[in-house]
Design brief:
Layout lengths: L13 H16 L19 E2 L5 H4 L7 E6 L14 H9 L5 E6 L11 H16 L2 E2 L13 H14 L1
Parallel strand pairs: 1-4
Antiparallel strand pairs: 2-3
Keywords: Acyltransferase, Endoplasmic reticulum, Lipid biosynthesis, Lipid metabolism, Membrane, Phospholipid biosynthesis, Phospholipid metabolism, Transferase, Transmembrane, Transmembrane helix
InterPro entries: LPCAT1-like, Plipid/glycerol_acylTrfase
Membrane topology: Multi-pass membrane protein
């Protein structure tokens, strides 16, 4: 990582978020630098859905070059369910798989529209990626697999459900 231009940060530290945003803006302003690779989900899930994107990547401006990535589990599953398998079990499963097959689709570049905020832009990019990969779009954060669901989120979903009924 020292030979490349990684931007490392602690997500929970607000000062780090502002510093990262500044570093990314400086990076994209310099046309001599290579594009930045960002995984805006912040986590990997089970290959069926695309979770909520972190909006920070979509606030800095510039052109987004979306890439849809989907693993084909027929010969070996690259997904690690950390609640079910230890790291050693996962590594053993991957290393003894027949093959890890991954489909990658490079999608047309996208830019933020004039009246669009970062959240809507992120959701638009996410929808394009999900559609190309044949995955569903989920409105919640992938971190929910490791954290307790907020009461406000539960209440919001309950209200939506009540409206349907």
């Amino acid at each position: 990582m020292q030979t490349t231009q990684h931007v490392l940060f602690e997500r929970s530290e607000m000062k780090d978020r502002h510093l990262v945003r500044k570093k990314i803006r400086e990076h994209i302003a310099d046309k001599a630098k290579l594009p930045i690779l960002i995984f805006p989900e912040g986590t990997c899930i089970n290959n069926t859905s695309v979770m909520m994107f972190k909006k920070g990547s979509f606030e800095v401006g510039g052109t987004i070059h979306p890439v849809a990535i989907k693993y084909d589990p027929r010969f070996g599953d690259a997904f690690w369910n950390s609640a079910k398998y230890s790291m050693m079990t996962y590594v053993f499963n991957v290393m003894t798989s027949w093959a890890i097959v991954c489909n990658v689709w490079y999608l047309p570049p996208m830019v933020k529209e004039v009246e669009e905020d970062a959240v809507h832009f992120a959701n638009r990019v996410k929808a394009v990626i999900a559609a190309r990969g044949g995955m569903s779009v989920l409105p919640w954060d992938g971190g929910l697999k490791r954290k307790k669901v907020k009461e406000s989120f539960k209440e919001e979903q309950q209200k939506k459900y009540c409206q349907i009924i």
